[in-house]
Amino acid sequence: MPSFQGPSQIQVIADTVSALAGPRVDASDIEWAAQLPAGKKLVQWLADQCLNDHVENAALRTIALEHEEVQILKHAGGSESSTTMDTIQAPLTYVTPSRLHKHAEHVDAETQLLEAETALVKSRIRQTKKAAQSSAATIKSLQAAIEREDAAISQAQDRLTELSILVDTTLLSAADTALSLLDTLVGTTYPDGPTSPNVESGGVHQSLAAATSSLTTLAALRSSITSHHTAQIETLRTEFSATDRTHPSSEYVERRVLPSREQLAVDATLLQHSITDLFNGNSLRERAYEIELQRIYNTLATEGDGNVVFDEVGAGESGPGDNCPFDVRLELEKAWALDRARLLDFEGEILDATIDAYTGKLIPGLTKLHTGLMAHERDVRIAESWVGALGLELEGVREDVERAEVNGPINTKCGVKTVPEGEDELEEKLKERLLRFEREQTTSRRGEPLVIINRDDIIQELQHIREGVEKGVEGGWRAHKVLMETLSTLSAIHHPLLTSIYRNSPLNTSPPFASSPQIARLESEANHAASVLGAALGKDGIGEEVEKVMENSRTKRKLGAFVDRWCLDSGSDVPRP
Fold first, then answer.
1. How many angstroms separate the CA atoms of 47 and 49, rounded?
2. Which superkingdom does the taxonomy of this entry point to (predicted)?
3. 91-100: which pairs have CB atoms within 8 A and are 24 or more residues apart?
């Protein structure tokens, strides 16, 4: 290890002995040892084992105290509050006096640097003010030029306004005429009546609304007539399925839902079999035999001619195997036909009433509505022809204007206003400004030099600049949208972290990253130790010297800067006293 370049080796050894809590040795007392060959080697070896104050030695600092610390420990050794422990645990935030001195030197250098930077900033501010004044003068000149250009533009706009007013007056007159015609059509009314109400003029499509209203009324009338007809038919069928005394002769009329012919044939067959079985029984046959003998006896008693009676009896006998006195199917078909005819008569009466309602109420209203719509359609066709003629006239006016402005202030090829003839000076100014604007660009926007020869080139360049501005605005909004989405995502990512920080804070009012309970307890212990050391310093009279040093304004300023810097580096928020 090389020898020291600063203090002598003898002085280093003397300082090391004092730092290791040994006796205070004067360097002149041991200089003789360096004059001897063996002593010189010993002094050289001891000096090589030590380091200068300018070299960091972490191992020595962990086991040795600095001179100021030794002095403080000596003053605190005689106090009553001194501890009997072999070791003293230093606080986590403890800084040795040498490092404090170095930090103070660093703060002084930083202060000087800040003062130099402040002077530089002041100089730049003065230059900025001068530039602002120059810019203000330039802005005033530009505003004057703009006002002159605005005045010229205002004059041109006044001329255009007069022409526009004239054109608008003509167009409004034509539009008023067309609107009057439409109002006349809208004000068309229909004949008064329940199915054709009056129509108020002045609204759009009022005639159509009136026609729709009339048609709706007629549709409602038709629905009511149809519903009444259906209800009567249903009532008739309901009454026809029951027995009621409605015949003038007070006879019962059997009313029921009429079956079909197939069902009638099936019922007749079943009933025929039942009656045949009834006639085939012995008791019924004997009773019929007695009745027939009684009838023969009565006939003989009244007529007196037996042959005639036997002929009549033979004619009234049934054929072999036919025991039923009548045809059931024929009788049922006759009854079904009578019921069907009666039902059809009732339905015919209902249908006649419905037809009378249609012909008396519904059809006349529809006829009136149809007549009104036909007349309105004829008027609309006439109005369409007039409006079409007006459109053709306006189209002719537009074509005349385009034909007159082929060489005028409107360039139909580019679609933007060009410089009128007689204003070549303004054209030259535009060309000059466009070329200057192109030269001020770092790179050409089209990759080739700008060439402006005539008015079409000026118009094309202006259109190109406008397209570039629109694209830039669109890109700016797109970037703004992306930035907002990114910020929203970042906020969503940080939200759980901030929630966890506030949830783990000691109090709800504590700011984020507040000190933990362990740090707070350690800070309290450090404050207590500092108060003990302060009491010890005041007891030995050193406190007065410290107070005199602290009363110096420069010391206060340096100490305040040190505290602020320490708070900034440590990330804590400790208010200055």
1. 5
2. Eukaryota
3. 91/522, 91/525, 91/526, 91/529, 92/522, 93/526, 93/570, 94/526, 96/61, 96/66, 96/69, 97/66, 97/68, 97/69, 98/53, 98/66
Higher pLDDT, 375 or 322: 375
Identify which of 56, 38, 45 has the alpha carbon closest to the alpha carbon of residue 12.
45
Q: Interhelix angle for 282-303 vs 261-279, to 10°? A: 80
Torsion angle of C-alpha atoms 316, 320, 322, 325, degrees rounded to 10: 10
Cα 261–chain centre separation: 72
Residues paired with 373 in a beta bridge: none
The pTM of this model reads 0.30
* CA separation for the pair 179, 387 (Å, rounded): 10
**Whether the predicted pLDDT of 258 surpasses 80:** no
Give the number of other CB atoms < 10 A from CB of residue 365.
Answer: 20
For the purposes of burial, counting CB atoms within 10 Å of the CB of 14, is it exposed (0-12), middle (13-18) or buried (19 or more)? buried
Q: Which of 274, 260, 243, 279 is nearest to 333 (CA)?
A: 260
Q: Between vectors from CA 99 to CA 98 and to CA 103, what angle results, nearest 5°?
A: 120
State how far the Cα of 402 lies from the Cα of 70, in Å rounded to an integer.
105
Q: Please list, in sequence order, all residues whose beta carbon lies within 8 angstroms of the beta carbon of residue 411, skipping any fewer than 6 positions away.
A: 417, 418, 455, 456, 459
Asked whether 562 and 107 are in contact (CB, 8 A), the reply is yes
**Nearby residues of 232 by Cβ (< 8 Å), 6 or more positions away:** 350, 353
Q: How many other C-beta atoms can be found within 10 angstroms of the C-beta atom of residue 526?
A: 15
List the Cα angle 303/306/310 in 5-degree steps: 110
On whether the CB atoms of residues 369 and 216 are closer than 8 A, the answer is: no
Using alpha carbons, select from 521, 497, 494, 516 the residue that is nearest to residue 505.
516
d(CA 249, CA 84): 143
Q: Where are the domains of the chain?
A: 1-64, 541-577
SS3 assignment, position 413: coil
Phi, psi (rounded to 5 degrees) for 254? -80, 115
CA–CA dist 46, 10 (Å, integer): 9
Q: What is the pLDDT of residues 43-56, one digit of tens each?
A: 888 877 775 555 55
